[in-house]
Structure formats: C-alpha cells, structure tokens
C-alpha cells in the first residue's frame, strides 16, 4: 500500500442538476500517462493603500481550481461525455481516486467542462478535458475524497486440515467469491464451487511429509482473503 496519493488515478464523472444534486458517477477510461493534474490558484490580491503607497489592508478574492486530463481516442469507443464544439452542456462533478484507494483523493462537486482535440503521428488523437471548479451546493470547491474500500471476505473455516485421501472439506464465505485458486502449484488439491460455497478435496499424499497450500479468494467486489489448507503426512 502507498504512503502518498500518487499513481494511476480512477476518474469518475457525474451530472449535476440545477439544484446542486449530484447524479450517478460513471468511471471514465484510464487517462494518458502523466496527464491528470489538479491545479489550484490563489485569487487576485486586493490592496488598500494610503497616499504615499503604504499598505493599510489587503485581502484576496476566492481562488480557482482546475482538473485536467487527456484520453486516447480508441477505435470503437465513444467519447465519455458529449460536447458541442468543445463545450460540455450543463455542470458536472468529478472525483479522483489514487492508485491506492485507501489514500485520500479529491472531488470537485460542480464544474464546467471543456474539451479540445490534438493529434500527432507519435500518439494519434487525444481528447484534452478540463474541469473548471465552480462553487458547489456546500463547502469548498475542491474537497478531500476517500473511496469506499470493500472489506475482505471472511472464510469459515479460514484454516482447513484434510486428513484423508478423497476427503472433502467445505469452506463458506460471507460474500460471493469469483475465484479460489492456489498461490502456488498444488496438484494434490482440488477446488470446486461458486458464490459463497466451496469444497476442497485432497488426493493421495505419498510424499511422506505434510502438504500445505494457500488459496487466494477473490471476491466479486475485488477484495481478497486467503485460506490455508494442510494435509498431514500419511
């Protein structure tokens, strides 16, 4: 896991209604490498001066923020959002999740979106999107955002001993499992099942020593857990 919020970002965009309500976020394609950039700028400084130029007071206008990224134009893929001559109608929210979703990302809850296109012989066409932050319904224009990280699946039991050849042990999970596979070759072990119910069957152990396998359980939501399986020496 990362310490800082760098790396390949996940970009999600949602429409914003006239009353500030944010619609459903949809994930965008992965941006071109090193093109995703959030920039904030201080507002103009206002200075009150007396005759002779001495400063009496100063203040700043509100700052601005822009999130920019580029997408490759790929065969058979539509634009992630429709525009009219480079202007995307309405307002949109955009949120950025870093490569490690446990690190803090950023969200702009209201923005205007523009897009321009470039082409060169080295990389073909790119769509350059710019999200210019506007004052949202509440709070700051750019807010911290932490993605919801799914909890790992829980196996019952998490450690299994199969004492006899042909013996079957059942393992159940608290959520649906997409795959349950050994982390290294384990030809003596057969794994079968789907969803939350799986069975483990051992073949003959003629090695004269105990056998151990670690199974990786990958849930349908992407979370991961492990199950340890042991067969004692015959």
Description of the structure:
This protein has two domains: 136 residues; 77 residues, Immunoglobulin-like (Sandwich), CATH 2.60.40. The protein is mainly beta and 234 residues long. The radius of gyration is 27 Å and the shape is elongated. A hairpin with a 5-residue loop joins strand 4 and strand 5. 20% of the residues are buried. The strands form three sheets. Strands 1, 2, 3, 6, 7, 8, 9 and 10 form an eight-stranded antiparallel beta sheet that branches. Strands 11, 12, 13, 14, 15 and 16 form a six-stranded mixed beta sheet that branches. It has a two-stranded antiparallel sheet with strand order 4-5. It is built from no helices and 16 strands.
SSE map:
Elements (H helix, E strand, L loop, with lengths): L9 E7 L9 E2 L9 E5 L3 E5 L5 E6 L3 E9 L14 E11 L7 E16 L3 E10 L8 E4 L9 E2 L2 E3 L6 E15 L6 E14 L8 E9 L4 E8 L3
- Structural category is mainly beta
Q: What is the averaged pLDDT score?
A: 93
Largest sheet: 8 strands, antiparallel
Query: Between the first and last Cα atoms, what is the distance in angstroms?
Result: 41 Å
Portion of residues within helices: under 10%
Q: What is Rg? A: 27 Å
pLDDT < 50 runs, ≥5 residues: none
Number of domains: 2
Order of helices and strands: EEEEEEEEEEEEEEEE
Strand content: over 45%
So what's the overall shape? elongated
Total number of β-strand segments? 16
Helices, by number, come to 0
């Amino acid at each position: 896991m990362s310490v800082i919020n760098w790396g390949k970002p996940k970009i999600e965009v949602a429409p914003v209604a006239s009353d500030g309500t944010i619609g459903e976020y949809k994930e965008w394609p992965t941006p071109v490498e090193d093109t995703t950039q959030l920039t904030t700028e201080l507002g103009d400084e206002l200075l009150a001066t007396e005759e002779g130029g001495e400063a009496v007071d100063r203040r700043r206008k509100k700052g601005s923020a822009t999130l920019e990224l580029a997408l490759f134009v790929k065969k058979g893929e539509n634009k992630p959002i429709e525009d009219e001559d480079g202007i995307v109608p309405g307002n949109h929210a955009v949120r950025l999740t870093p490569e490690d979703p446990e690190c803090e990302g950023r969200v702009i809850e209201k923005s205007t979106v523009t897009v321009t296109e470039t082409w060169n012989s080295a990389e073909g066409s790119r769509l350059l999107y710019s999200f210019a932050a506007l004052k949202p319904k509440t709070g700051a224009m750019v807010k911290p955002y932490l993605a919801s990280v799914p909890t790992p699946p829980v196996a019952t039991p998490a450690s299994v001993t199969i004492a006899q050849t042909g013996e079957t042990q059942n393992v159940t999970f608290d959520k649906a499992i997409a795959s349950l596979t050994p982390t290294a070759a384990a030809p003596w072990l057969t794994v079968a099942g789907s969803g939350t119910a799986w069975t483990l069957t051992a073949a003959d152990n003629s090695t004269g020593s105990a056998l151990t396998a670690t199974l990786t359980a990958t849930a349908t939501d992407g979370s991961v857990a492990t199950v340890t399986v042991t067969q004692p020496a015959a």
